[in-house]
Amino acid sequence: MKNYPEVPILPTTVIGSYPRPKWLKETIQLAKMGKISKADLEEAFNDAVVDVMRDHQLAGIDIPTDGEMRRDEMVEFFAENLKGFTFYGFVRVWGDAYYRKPSVVSKIEYKKPMLENEVRFAQSVSYTSNLKVTITGPYTIADWSFNEYYKTKEDLVFDLAKIINQELRNLVKMGIPFVQVDEPALPTHEEEIPWAVQAINEAIKGIDVKVGLHICYGDYAKVMPFAEEMKVDQLALEFKNRDFKDLNLLKKFGYTKEIGLGVVDVHSSEVESPEEVAKGIKKALQVLEPEKIYVNPDCGLKRLSRRVAYQKLVSVVEGTKMVREELKKKGLSTIQLKPIVNR
Ligand SMILES: [Zn+2]
């Protein structure tokens, strides 16, 4: 029997990314211009992870990440590390945001563990062994790439699923108790959801630690009918910037798994108060048991200023503590960080 860690009830966590310190952005620029060595850049990434961990620790987050300091972008990072992808250049995604869109030009193959080094470093400087590691899901990697090799998008997604599974198994071996698959693209093509869900299940097959699935943007009503079929333990969703209205969807679809409850908006620099956070959690408690709620920001914090991101984390923690006080009176104080679905 595996020994699962104990965490406070309503564990606080993050979705993944955190703002890169200003000096790290400048260091990355210098590295691109060839003005500093690879080793110096690596040292800067490591130092940034130490800073980010410290912010999470000071805020009081139970299950931190390393802030994804090494990842410029969530698809590009994995495409760069897999055989089968090439990059032609930048495409415009919205406004004046540009994205280096990868293209699949041959069979996707696993070259080497992609996250091992960053995870090992995070573990070596973390204040807790309860680390969460995020990985972009097979559907989103495919959806945000050009497919110039596979006959169908479905074939590509299932090949990617096998690779993500290999990577996740590696993370489990390293002792990571919580992995999160990020699939922001999932709700965007409704007709593809049924097989995309099967591909996600393939990607998490045999993973016997907590598995979350994060979806942002899009209409959750399109995904909810598949919630039971998805073999994840938890859906981490944005609720705050939708005014918690989607809690009704959980009720409507008789949702029984856990949620990662987004309680602060990552698109607004206004910092929510702890009271506001507590109010959001109480709304969720009307539709789900307290044991099934994890508390986190709506999405990654990378686009906020570091100061605002930190303050939002403090509110997440302080607001959660308020609700915990009330749960304590009912004898609820801790839960185990463990899977609830057999994969
Ligand atoms: Zn997100």
Automatic annotation (TrEMBL):
It is an enzyme of class 2 (transferase). Its EC number is 2.1.1.-. Binds 1 zinc ion per subunit. Zn(2+) binds at residues 214, 216, 238, 299. Belongs to the archaeal MetE family. Catalyzes the transfer of a methyl group to L-homocysteine resulting in methionine formation. The physiological methyl donor is unknown. This is Methionine synthase. It comes from Sulfuracidifex metallicus DSM 6482 = JCM 9184. The gene is metE.
